[in-house]
Amino acid sequence: MTYLTLWWVWMAAALGLAILETLLTGFIFLGFAIGAFGVSLILVTGLVSPSLALLALVFAGLSLIAWLLLRHFFAIPKGQVKTFTKDIND
User: Fold this and answer.
1) Which of 87, 7, 1, 5 shows the shortest CA–CA distance to 53?
2) Would you state the torsion angle of the CA atoms of residues 58, 64, 66, 69, taken in this order, to the nearest 10 degrees?
């Protein structure tokens, strides 16, 4: 059995990616963290047989869906530019 078929490895990867997201912002690593968390939940519940190829496919799919949802809900509306009218030092 490889380590990538164990649920706690995916949970540790999700935690590491979430910590990395707090250090490097931009919703890049958060989608991967959500995907890894989803794979760990799938492995805990036993819904999927732990084959590495299937887990990688599920991880990629969940990460893509999570990234698209994050981009949809947290992005600045198209055509709108964020401007600042007040200085923080005033």
Assistant:
1) 5
2) -140
C-alpha 9/C-alpha 15 separation (Å) is 10
Cα distance between residue 41 and residue 20, in whole Å:
21
Distance between alpha carbon 2 and the CA centroid of its chain, in Å? 23
Whole-model pTM: value is 0.80
Tell me the pLDDT band of 73, cut-offs 50, 70 and 90: confident
Count CB-CB contacts under 10 A for residue 80.
8
How many other CB atoms are there within 10 angstroms of residue 60's CB atom? 13
Block residue for tokens 């964020």:
82
